[in-house]
Automatic annotation (TrEMBL):
UniProt keyword annotation of Membrane present: no
Species lineage: Eukaryota, Metazoa, Chordata, Craniata, Vertebrata
Broad enzyme group: ligase
GO biological process: valyl-tRNA aminoacylation
Organism in which the protein naturally occurs: Myripristis murdjan (pinecone soldierfish)
Cellular compartment(s): Cytoplasm; Mitochondrion
NCBIfam families: PRK05729.1, valS
Protein known as: Valine--tRNA ligase, mitochondrial
Gene name, Swiss-Prot/TrEMBL: vars2
Domain called Methionyl/Valyl/Leucyl/Isoleucyl-tRNA synthetase anticodon-binding: residue spans: 760-890
Function: Catalyzes the attachment of valine to tRNA(Val) in a two-step reaction: valine is first activated by ATP to form Val-AMP and then transferred to the acceptor end of tRNA(Val).
Gene Ontology cellular component terms for the protein in this record: cytosol; mitochondrion
Length: 993
């Protein structure tokens, strides 16, 4: 039942059934053969237009993100003379405030030069962890969607590396055949050139120049994002080694009879003059007559109308009327189909009609696929230009007549009056000719979904072309039988494999890409070149040997001509997990790191990339290419639109890291290839979202913010204000370390002394709990749970609570009015407090390192002079903290006691509602005191630790009393509504006096 999902035939059948017959939906409410996939795309287009109108409307906020409040910060730069690749000097004075530019300087070059990212690095456990980065296309720079992938994958990689695994994370880029060629062609057009003006070799030189520029830019962005990739193994899908793998895969699949050449209907872009894949077909929803711009036409073209015309019955009076949205294709009609049970056409079964322009006789056939309720109930059959008609023609052994060429012009056999005429110009000429013959019966508005090439903007034309196809049905079935992939995020791997039932067209009529290693054979005795056949081989010599054996002739008598087509990009991308490791050679990397431990990618690629990797990997290597699949949600802009270069709403992660002005954002949009309307929408969205531009947030803040989102579930609507709040967290960490360095003294003793106070034990218990949450979060791939636990511990437990409590002990608390400071006389207590503080900060930095590599390295290196034992060179090589090291602090009496204290000091915030304040004795004055009423046991505990409350109470006095009679404290009728239970387990109640 899933076989129709995402299949090309099912996707375009509805669209072009609309365009070729009366079976197209006449209204939005009536039944229609439009496929669910196409309807879904149409609905996306509708929502997209709604969002665009919201952006442009006056109702949309003009103030941008109201949470995006920021002011220019003082620029602090690292000025020490550190040669590239040398360790950063952390002995220089510690700056007073956090500066991303200062922090991120020099570290990455040192990490890379020292080889910290290579699997050859010394490791603690005899286990490996491997994955590949989803290779970004060399069509342009990375956007925040790519940054999300990098942040997630690098967090996992750094975590595993700190656990002692032998880690391999391979970087790479995809040549993105059709996308890259389109971009380069547009650049040439701006220079007044055309691809056809150049030879294939000259054009490929232009593309390689583009690739080198963009590839370097992408790798620069990855380094700026802190991605700990093994650059020694960087892989490009057009590298010689990778090309060898692609050729080997093609030959093996041909030898297994899984690849074949046939003439079939394909998606065709007349602008590109190439077949295109499903993923490159978008649908545009039309609700009636609509004028659209089409590449190659100066005037807009009309769509969204349905024309009805008549076919005269040959040899009899009468006619059969049919309807179509594509009258130009009627030159290719080979039959008229009616339902066998339709009483209106019982008399014409088996009869013929006469074509009004070609004088051909076309049969009237009966087929149950015809919907009697739609239109006239009679359907024109154009098998060379419609997927459903193609299937009908196969059932009735009808011929195929192609009337539109690959360049979008009418074929010669259409007649001199249409020969060479562009297809949409021919549309009007056909209508005029039908009117002249008095066969035109009407024209009306018609709702439809129009398939459009996402690369060229051209209207997709189903054309009958000889192409190379890969049989997917059997491969998918075999993959399903062996699939043991653990899937995190969604559970539709089997569904996607089942959906790949139609054969995959893998050939493209492009110049940029892997040229198909197949050769057309010409023999001396053959008069017709088309009658011989094709052979394939890893080289021309091998192909010649195969041809000699196949046709029983001598090698020297054979003439071979290599196919000029290239392979679909997704074919080579599907080989990436093993081709990057040296396949087909049995390299040590392939033996050690294949299958990959995990594949992490966006959920939108599960069909086009993930399922194909499973099929090809299983077929070619006998193994699944990865053990686990982790899918994350899609990144969208603030308005809910998917980030796309075609919409102009992509944000360069470097612009968030370094900051950018609104003017520069506008200029980037202007420099792109956007349609004028899209350009207007994009610039207006920028003006409203970033009225002052984007502030400098830094790499660590961006990574932490991205990992703070739940990876599975709803799509992510990223707001820069959330990244900015993470920058504030970075500054909090910075100031925490400044405080810590100010209280640490030499000689520094190791953290071995048992903490003396309940607050020490409480913070250690909280640290243990945080480490445990991090372990569980990483193991479950729930990074948002890890970041939440780390933020909560650092800000609330460490800074807001523990550091405030130990300031009197360390002599760091300012005198404030009304606050009596209790200083510890014991030097041992001071030493213990500083030891605990150091331990909490040091462990927390290690926990945060996978998310904030630059900041944690900077701060950790500053702590090293106080470290009692010899440390490894870098924090990224330190063991990741384990809960087993801190399990002695798991839940203890003293930590519970301190929890009681925290509940007491939270009274003011919990009792600040106007309803409760009516009980305050000094209603119009500042609160002066709070009385806490406790049961006897809790009262005794509280009195023992009463002095610590004065540190946390801020501006009010805490009084403790034994709870005797609650009813005596307040009127009976006020007890239920006026008394707030703050700690039910301890029966804690409070009231104001």
């Amino acid at each position: 039942m899933w076989r129709a999902r995402r299949v090309l035939c099912g996707r375009l059948a509805g669209a072009y059934r609309l365009c070729s017959s009366n079976r197209a939906q006449p209204s939005a409410s009536s039944s229609s053969p439009v496929s669910p996939a196409l309807r879904g795309q149409a609905e996306k287009q509708r929502r997209r237009r709604v969002k665009e109108r919201a952006i442009l409307s006056s109702q949309h906020s003009n103030t941008g993100d109201h949470e995006l409040t920021w002011s220019e910060k003082e620029e602090i730069k690292y000025t020490a003379q550190t040669p590239p690749g040398q360790k950063k000097d952390t002995t220089v004075p510690f700056p007073s405030s956090y500066s991303p530019e200062y922090v991120e300087s020099s570290w990455y070059q040192w990490w890379e030069k020292e080889g910290f990212f290579t699997p050859e690095l010394a490791h603690a456990v005899d286990q490996s962890f491997s994955l590949c980065i989803p290779p970004p296309n060399v069509t342009g720079s990375l956007h925040l969607g790519h940054a999300l992938t990098v942040a997630i994958e690098d967090a996992l990689v750094r975590w595993k590396r700190m656990q002692g695994y032998r880690v391999l994370w391979v970087p790479g880029c995809d040549h993105a055949g059709i996308a890259t060629q389109t971009v380069v062609e547009k650049r040439l057009q701006r220079e007044g050139k055309h691809r056809r003006d150049l030879s294939r070799e000259e054009f490929l030189q232009e593309v390689w120049k583009w690739k080198n520029d963009k590839g370097d830019e992408i790798y620069h962005q990855l380094r700026k994002l802190g991605a700990s990739l093994d650059w020694n193994r960087a892989c490009f899908t057009m590298d010689p080694g990778f090309s060898k793998a692609v050729t080997e895969a093609f030959v093996r699949l041909c030898d297994s009879d899984l690849i074949y050449r046939s003439e079939r209907l394909v998606n065709w872009s007349c602008a590109l003059e190439s077949a295109i894949s499903d993923i490159e077909v978008e649908s545009k929803e039309l609700f009636g007559q609509t004028m659209l711009s089409v590449p190659g036409y100066q005037e807009k073209v009309e769509f969204g109308t349905m024309v009805t015309f008549a076919y005269p019955i040959d040899g009899h009076d009468g006619e059969v009327a049919v309807s179509t949205t594509r009258p130009e294709t009627m030159l290719g009609d080979v039959a008229i189909a009616v339902h066998p049970d339709d009483p209106r056409y019982k008399d014409v079964h088996g009869k013929h009609c006469r074509h009004p322009f070609t004088n051909r006789v076309i049969p009237i056939v009966t087929d149950t696929m015809v919907d009697m309720e739609l239109g006239t109930g009679a359907v024109k059959v154009t098998p060379a230009h419609d997927h459903m008609d193609f299937l009908l023609a196969q059932r009735h052994s009808l011929p195929h007549l192609t009337v539109i060429g690959g360049d979008g012009t009418m074929m010669p056999h259409c007649g001199q009056w249409l020969k060479g005429v562009k297809r949409f110009d021919a549309r009007q000429q056909v209508l005029d000719a039908l009117a002249d013959k008095k066969l035109l019966r009407g024209k009306k508005d018609h709702a439809m979904s129009l398939p459009i090439c996402s690369r060229s903007g051209d209207i997709v034309e189903p054309l009958l072309k000889k192409q190379w196809f890969l049989r997917c049905d059997e491969m998918a079935k075999r993959a399903i039988q062996v699939t043991g992939v653990s899937l995190y995020g969604v559970s539709i791997m089997h569904l996607c494999l089942c959906s790949i039932c139609s054969d995959w067209c893998i050939s493209r009529q492009l110049w940029w890409g892997h040229q198909i290693p197949a050769y057309h054979v010409e023999l001396p005795s053959s008069s017709d070149k088309q009658e011989v056949g094709w052979v394939w081989g890893r080289s021309e010599d091998e192909a010649r040997q195969r041809a000699a054996i196949k046709y029983g002739v001598k090698m020297e008598s054979i003439t071979l001509t290599r196919d000029t087509d290239v392979l679909d990009t997704w074919f080579s991308s599907g080989l990436f997990p093993f081709a990057m490791l040296g396949w087909p050679e049995q390299t040590s990397d392939l033996q050690q790191y294949y299958p990959n431990s995990i594949l992490e990618t966006g959920s939108d690629l599960i069909f086009f990339w993930v399922a194909r990797m499973v099929m090809l990997g299983t077929e070619l290597t006998g193994q699944l290419p990865f053990k686990k699949v982790l899918l994350h949600s899609l990144m969208r802009d603030k308005h809910g639109r998917k980030m796309s270069k075609s919409l102009g709403n992509v944000i360069d992660p470097l612009d968030v890291i370094s900051g950018i002005s609104l003017e520069r954002l506008h200029q980037k949009v202007k420099d792109g290839n956007l349609h004028p309307r899209e350009r207007t929408v994009a610039m207006e969205a920028q003006r409203k979202d970033f009225p002052k531009g984007i502030p400098q947030c830094g790499t660590d803040a961006l990574r932490f913010a991205l990992c703070s989102y739940k990876m599975q579930g709803e799509d992510i609507n990223l707001s820069v204000s959330q990244v900015l709040s993470c920058r504030h967290f970075c500054n909090k960490m910075w100031q925490t370390l400044r405080f810590t360095l100010g209280v640490l003294t030499f000689p520094f003793h190791n953290f071995q002394t048992t903490p003396l106070s309940s607050v020490d034990r409480w913070v250690c218990s909280r640290l243990y709990s945080t480490v445990l949450q991090c372990e569980r979060g990483f193991e479950a791939y729930e990074l948002h749970a890890v970041t939440s636990a780390l933020y909560s511990f650092w800000v609330h437990s460490l800074c807001d609570t523990y550091m405030e409590c130990i300031k009197p002990v360390l002599g760091k608390l300012d005198q404030r009015a009304g606050v009596q400071i209790h200083r510890e006389d014991s030097g041992r207590a001071k030493q213990v407090a500083s030891n605990v503080l150091y331990h909490c900060v040091s462990v927390s930095l290690a926990l945060l390192s996978p998310f904030m590599p630059f900041l944690t390295e900077e701060l950790w290196q500053r702590l090293q002079p106080f470290r009692p034992d010899a440390a490894k060179a870098s924090l990224c090589l330190q063991p990741y903290p384990s809960s087993t090291q801190l399990n002695k602090f798991e839940g203890n009496h003293d930590s519970d006691v301190f929890g009681l204290k925290l509940q007491v000091v939270k009274v003011p915030s919990k009792c600040s509602t106007p309803h409760f304040l009516c009980m305050v004795k000094f209603y119009h004055q500042s609160y002066s005191a709070v009385t806490v009423s406790l049961y006897g046991t809790q009262y005794l505990i509280a009195k023992m630790h009463y002095k610590q409350w004065t540190v946390l109470r801020y501006c009010f006095t805490v009084r403790v009393r034994v709870r005797n009679d609650l009813h005596a404290l307040l009127p009976t009728n006020e007890i239920s509504s006026k008394i707030t239970p703050l700690c039910p387990l301890l029966s804690l109640f409070c009231y104001w006096i």
